[in-house]
């Protein structure tokens, strides 16, 4: 879950918020730290228990899961006061800092780990790229930014996290909507774990065949402070909707199976509209910065055509592959703004043009900072941020005065891991 620096914080919908995952914006607890279930005052805990029991009863009835089984599994559920602080929005005096954000995620340790992860899974990454159209570099970048390939997956018990945020969310203007969001995720977790434990949905009020140990293990697994799970940090709803069995062992394990994580990230991106062979973003021309500033509104919508941006001087028709590639004049784009303070504390902004694939990454995590970091991390791994799908071009006109068009040619170049 991403509650980190972004103009999109107040713009994107709650559904988009939980589209997939969240890389944690602060340092997680150390691996040796045990899971801590802290209790607040007795009155708060009493309300928490009552509300949790009520939701469990509703889920049991609507999904035909034995209520006694659910109640038993949640007997030890507790609120975690520390995560209530972690989900708070930044203070009004907080300045967004693209430069610091980028430096944190695109750095030598993650890049080195990314190259190692790629080498270890190169054959499977190539296979997934061919099948999904999502570049291996982008998949590797996402998993690296999210958890450094499984090194930072969170040390909070997921059922406690979701229960806390569902019934004890901090006092914020959006408290009601956030609590409903996490109630939904708690139900998704229960359904996910019920299925993983071998229970049938609906279970017709019988727990016959349920592996209770596996069911409870699933409920008690570690997550981020917002309930995101595994190498790619998927929320329970995204696991149920987009996670796939990449290694073919008959189950989905995003914590221990790199192949499951790789295939699931690719499937999420594909299902959310990734366009194979197309760029993610273009730099803004220096002469067009003023025009870009006027168009940057933080709204994650593709609203300007490439042709319009060229006319305004934001893009140059000769840059990248705007002429020879598959980015046609009527392709839609948006203006990305990446604010940061300079060394004197003055507000500065870097601008870029985001294409459809940029917006697809935003749907994975609701942040321009995040999406741009994924793009630049992928580039550091060797990703060529240009079209691999030549556009249909006008070859000549027929005798009747009608233009004829050539057929798109397939890219024959195969990307390899960039060695440094």
Radius of gyration: 23 Å
* Helix/strand order: HHHHHHHHEHHHEHHEHEHEEHHEE
How many extended strands?
8
| pLDDT averaged over residues | 83
Number of helices: 17
CATH topology: Lysozyme
User: What top-tier CATH class fits best?
Assistant: Mainly Alpha
Note the beta-strand portion. 5-15%
Sheet/helix structural class: alpha+beta
Largest sheet: 4 strands, antiparallel
Give the helices and strands, then pairings.
Elements: H1 14-17, H2 42-63, H3 67-73, H4 81-86, H5 98-105, H6 108-120, H7 122-132, H8 136-147, E1 156-157, H9 158-167, H10 175-196, H11 212-219, E2 222-223, H12 236-242, H13 258-271, E3 281-283, H14 289-295, E4 304-305, H15 306-311, E5 332-341, E6 347-354, H16 356-364, H17 368-380, E7 394-397, E8 403-405
Antiparallel strand pairs: 1-2, 3-6, 4-5, 5-6, 7-8
TL;DR of this structure?
By secondary structure, the chain is α+β, with helices and mostly antiparallel strands.
In words, what does this structure look like?
By secondary structure, the chain is α+β, with helices and mostly antiparallel strands. The protein has a single domain (1-38, 78-154, 224-420), classed as Lysozyme (Orthogonal Bundle), CATH 1.10.530.10. Helix content is 43%, strand content 8%. The protein has 17 helices and 8 strands. It has helices spanning 14-17, 42-63, 67-73, 81-86, 98-105, 108-120, 122-132, 136-147, 158-167, 175-196, 212-219, 236-242, 258-271, 289-295, 306-311, 356-364, 368-380; strands at 156-157, 222-223, 281-283, 304-305, 332-341, 347-354, 394-397, 403-405. A 4-stranded antiparallel sheet has the order 3-6-5-4. A two-stranded antiparallel sheet has the order 1-2. A hairpin with a 5-residue loop joins β7 and β8.
